[in-house]
Each structure stands twice: as structure tokens, then as C-alpha cells.
TrEMBL record:
Residues 124-220 bind DNA. One of its GO terms (molecular function) is phosphorelay response regulator activity. Residues 2-116 form the Response regulatory domain. Keywords: DNA-binding, Phosphoprotein, Transcription, Transcription regulation. InterPro entries: CheY-like_superfamily, OmpR/PhoB-type_DNA-bd, Sig_transdc_resp-reg_receiver, WalR-like, WH-like_DNA-bd_sf. GO terms for cellular component: cytosol; protein-DNA complex. CDD domains: REC_OmpR_PmrA-like, trans_reg_C. The modification 4-aspartylphosphate is found at residue 51. Residues 124-220 form the OmpR/PhoB-type domain. This is Transcriptional regulatory protein QseB. The lineage of its organism: Bacteria, Pseudomonadati, Pseudomonadota, Betaproteobacteria, Nitrosomonadales.
């Protein structure tokens, strides 16, 4: 899951980003509404943690515009404003949750986790593909009943591939789904990760095809 923190305090933003990464999320931070627009254009963002008191275009205005443009990302509003009218305005504009400052880190993480689950409510949170089981919430994978030990980046690629079974996914799409928005992952790096994943799955009967010039395709599982 890719989380974008929109917060003009770089120390606070950096702290949230680091905590989320430790929990296994892909997380990035920006300091303005304009940078948030760029991040949404270039990356597949699932959840936005939005501070209302941004310089220039404030958080409420950005949220209104984002929803008007069809943005479907979950939004958790962070703000020092604690008036009921502000909460109502944020929720009316399309925020999914509201957390006033100051807040406990544990509560922030719990709300992020809850929004992650809610965002996946329209699709199963457990992916089963033959002997492979992926728990999207707990970020765990099992192969033939045994834990599949993967580095964070490879696990993110695994989730993306098996969320798009029988669809061709290009290296650029994979990079956009698993990388930080201001981070570049080369095609060669994707190939290395794919080689390692295939090696770990090779005895399972799971097939990941290379479609020359286009990307990769996970074949539908067929019981023997």
C-alpha cells in the first residue's frame, strides 16, 4: 500500500514517513498541494494523510479539487484545528477520517490500518493462487503452507502481480506501484527482483510469463 503524507512541517512529515515504512508501507511525503498533485500523477497512491494548514492552497481546497477530479484515494485529515465545523467540512469534502493534533503514534497507525482495510473492502484482502496465499493487510505470504520470506520490495511486487492475474503489467507500472514517488527504479532492477521471485516460486507450478516488449503476466492457476 502506497501512502502519501502532505504536511508542510518536514520534521513531522519525516517522522510519519519513517514510522509507516517500518510498518511495511510504501510512504512518501510532500510539503505543498502542488507537490501532492505531482505525486498523484506519477504514482499509484492508495492513501493520503493530509494536513489542512498547508501554505498557498490549503488542505480543504486541495481535497475539494482532488475529489472533483475523480480522485478515489482514501484521505486521513490531520489538523491542529479541533472545531466541530472544521471536522464537518473535511468529512463533507470527502475525507474518510479526521485526526486532530497532537495525536499518539499508535492511534495514527491504527487509523491508517483501518483505512487500508476499508479501501480493500471491495476486493478480497486475501489473495489465493494455487499454493500461494498473500495476506494484504498483514503483508505476509505463504507458499504451500510455509512462510515465504521476501524483502519488502519483492513482497510489494508480489502483491501487485497477483492483484493483476492474467493482465500484462509493464515494468513502469510495477515501478510506479512499489517505488516512492520521487524514486526511480530501473528496468534492470525490476528484472533482478522478478528473477528472485521466480526462483522462489519455481517449484510451486506458478507461472509468471515474460511478454517481450510489454512486461509480465501471471497465468491463471490451473489445478492438476
Amino acid at each position: 500500500m502506497h501512502v502519501l503524507i502532505v504536511e508542510d512541517d518536514p520534521i513531522l512529515a519525516g517522522g510519519i514517513t519513517e514510522k509507516l515504512r517500518r510498518e511495511g508501507y510504501v510512504a512518501d511525503s510532500v510539503t505543498s498541494a502542488e507537490q501532492a498533485d505531482t505525486a498523484l500523477r506519477v504514482s499509484q497512491i492508495d492513501l493520503v494523510i493530509l494536513d489542512i494548514g498547508l501554505p498557498g492552497v490549503d488542505g480543504f481546497s486541495w481535497l475539494r479539487k482532488m475529489r472533483a477530479n475523480g480522485g478515489q484515494q482514501s484521505v486521513l485529515v490531520l489538523t491542529a484545528r479541533n472545531d466541530v465545523s472544521d471536522r464537518v467540512q473535511g468529512l463533507t469534502l470527502g475525507a474518510d477520517d479526521y485526526l486532530p493534533k497532537p495525536y499518539a503514534t499508535e492511534e495514527l497507525l491504527a487509523r491508517v490500518y483501518a483505512l487500508a482495510r476499508r479501501g480493500r473492502a471491495l476486493k478480497s484482502r486475501i489473495i489465493e493462487h494455487g499454493p500461494l496465499t498473500i495476506d494484504l493487510d498483514r503483508k505476509r505470504a505463504m507458499l504451500s503452507g510455509k512462510p515465504l520470506d521476501l524483502p519488502q520490495r519483492e513482497h510489494a511486487i508480489l502483491e501487485y502481480l497477483f492483484s493483476n492475474v492474467e493482465a500484462i503489467v509493464g515494468k513502469d507500472k510495477i515501478a510506479g506501484a512499489v517505488a516512492s514517488w520521487n524514486e526511480e527504479i530501473s528496468a534492470n532492477a525490476i528484472e533482478v527482483h522478478m528473477s528472485r521471485l521466480r526462483s522462489k516460486l519455481e517449484d510451486s507450478g506458478i507461472k509468471i510469463r515474460t511478454i517481450r516488449g510489454l512486461g509480465y503476466l501471471v497465468e491463471a492457476w490451473k489445478d492438476a
